Each structure stands twice: as structure tokens, then as C-alpha cells.
Amino acid sequence: MDVGEMALAILQGVLEWLPVSSEGQLVQISILALGMPPERALNEALFLHLGTALAALVALRKEVADALAGIPRGEDFSKFVVVSVVVSALVGLPVMVAVKGASPSIGGAAMIAFSLVLVAVGAVLRVAESRGPPSGRGISPREGVVAGLAQGLAAIPGVSRSGSTVAALLLMGSDPEEALRASFLIGIPATMGASALSPPPELSLGQMAVLVSVSFAVGLISLRILLSAARRVRMSTFALAFGAAGVALNLPSIL
Prior knowledge:
Order of helices and strands: HHHHHHHHHHH
Structural class: mainly alpha
Number of helices: 11
């Protein structure tokens, strides 16, 4: 393990929550800057996702407990989680097989298009907000279908899982903090599953523990900062900022 791999763990902790494919970015940096073979770069990128998945599990432990407790009672939020996870698996597995080996620029172009739509929605929301306070639609099984589709399509190389699901929920009318929490919650099983199924990185157990710990710590701090910011800004502002960030962060992948 060297300084470069430590930097990758820090980057994973920040990029996981932003509208850009953290996996794609880490793979490109590992290959171009650190000289890693592509297969090793992909394995290490997927492994580092374990740290941010654990960070989401800690930060959203209340939501996780509520979702599990609400399943027997048939609560809407629990239905949302179950539906989104099932739909994302049904969509994501075939997509993963179909696009295996595809260029990340394909997903980058899709994320730019999605982000531009979100910017347009933010502009419309800004006009609507001038006429009265906005209110989110709340989370229901219908949002679960949309979020699951968005998460499943994130199997396309270059598509951001969190970016696509947050954007989809914002477009459905969820408020910013609600969209972020729901997106990161349903991403926990998908991320942990991908990390568990990927081959282990070529590192010792001690090195792996250090990298996961760094990814976890940075991820937990950056996630809490993002959730706090979402709580303080208007829906239109967040949609505009999130969409603009999506365009800026994904533009280099298609140039």
C-alpha cells in the first residue's frame, strides 16, 4: 500500500455521494496515475466502496431500523426500500451483462443529459417557489420503482448510482434531504453486494483494514456535511447545484 492507494480511499469517501461515478473515477486514476492494471484497478475501486457503504449504514442507522421495523406493518417507506432494491436487482443484473466492457463515456454522456434535465427542473422549481413554499411528495412504493430503475441503470459504466437515484427522486418531488437519505439507504445492499462479489484486492489484511477505515471515516464526514447542506437549502437551489455538479464532473469523461 502506498500514498496513491490512500488517496484513492479518501477520494472514494468524497465522490461516493456526488453525481459522478466514483468507481469510474477511481479506476481511471488508478490506471493513468498509479499505473495499475485495469483488473486490479477495478477490484480495488469496488473494495473501497465497502467503507462508504459502512459509513451510510452508520449515518442512516435510524432509517435502516425504521425500514426493517416497518416491513411487517406494510409502511410506505419500507415498501419503498423493498421495491427499489428488488427493481434495481432485476434491472441492474441484465444491464451489467449487456454492457460489460462498454466505455465509461457512455454513462458519462447519460449522466450529463440527466443532470441537464435536473437543472431545468430546478429552474422551474425556482419559479414555483416564488409563488409559495414547496412541499415534497414524500416517499412511496411508486418512488421505489423509479429509484430502483435509476439504480439498476447505474450498472452502465460511468453512470453514478447516487447521482441517478437522487436526481430521479428530486424529479419525482422529494425534498433534497429526503432524496439523499433514500438514495444512500437503498444503495447500501447494492454497494455491499458488489464489494462482496468482487475479487479481493492484492493487499494484506492490515492494508485492506486501513483503506476501508479511511474510506469509512472520510465517507461518514462528507455524507453528514452533504445531508446538513441539503437541510438548509431550498429544493430549487439543491436541484440546480446538483445538476450543475453532474454536468461539470462528467464532462471530462466524454471529451
